[in-house]
Amino acid sequence: MFTGIVEELGEIVRLTEGAEDSAVIAVRGPLVTSDARHGDSISVNGCCLTVIDNVDGVFTADVMGETLRRTSLGALREGSNVNLERAAALGSRLGGHLVQGHVDGVARIIAREPADQWEVVRFSLPSELARYVVEKGSITVDGVSLTVMAVDEDSFSVGMIPATSKLTVLGSKAIGDPVNLEVDVIAKYVEKMLGGRNV
């Protein structure tokens, strides 16, 4: 479990293709690896990956073909920057919202509109996720906990403060670039419990 508060901008050091459409990814992140052990979870652009090795500030993780196909991790290259966050510890502050690191879909940046103290960024919204995205609700974009400013049938927008632009990969992404989305897990559980009942 994560909070969507990015701790560090990491860098892809190596991508090695594995068997059956899988890969091994090596990521430089001195902060997140400072206490990382084999089996720990680290969020990479919003995808929960399991540490298999940690040497000199670089951790490696196996990435299944399913993850490569259903997230933007498949588009990463050596030298790409990535958002990194260690798993939340019980008793720590929850600065963002509850984030599982389970990507629900991939969106693309549609527009960026600079303002005096922030930037409004609009993203495409996959139709199968639209019912979970609400104005003033939480959404995770590339592992970053953000508040939805506005939403329509096929897009949503967020306000991004300068710190978010500077400290995460979202600041350097261009129109058309892919991003990982995770919707609020509470909304999915509520939907399942209601089971289609009219309320």
Order of helices and strands: EEEEEHEEEEEEHEH
Tell me which CATH architecture of the largest domain applies here: Beta Barrel
Number of separate strands: 12
* Shape assignment: globular
Q: Spatial order of the strands in the main sheet?
A: 1-2-5-4-3-6
Question: How confident is the prediction overall: mean pLDDT?
Answer: 93
What is the rounded Rg?
17 Å
CATH topology name of the largest domain, in short, is Elongation Factor Tu (Ef-tu), domain 3
**What is the total number of structural domains?**
2
How helical, in percent, are the residues? 10-25%
User: Based on helices, strands and strand pairing, what is the structural class?
Assistant: mainly beta
Largest sheet: 6 strands, antiparallel, barrel
Query: Which band does the percent of strand residues land in?
Result: 35-45%
Distance between the termini: 31 Å
Task: Write up this protein.
The model has no long low-confidence stretch (mean pLDDT 93). The chain is mainly beta. The strands form 2 sheets. Strands 1-2-5-4-3-6 form a 6-stranded antiparallel β-barrel. A 6-stranded antiparallel beta barrel has the order 7-8-11-10-9-12. The longest helix is centred in the last third of the chain and has 10 residues, at 185-194. A hairpin with a 2-residue loop joins strand 9 and strand 10. The protein has helices at residues 65-70, 162-167, 185-194; strands spanning 8-17, 23-28, 41-44, 47-55, 58-63, 81-86, 105-114, 119-124, 138-141, 144-151, 155-160, 178-183. It comes from Actinoplanes philippinensis. It catalyses: 2 6,7-dimethyl-8-(1-D-ribityl)lumazine + H(+) = 5-amino-6-(D-ribitylamino)uracil + riboflavin. It is an enzyme of class 2 (transferase).
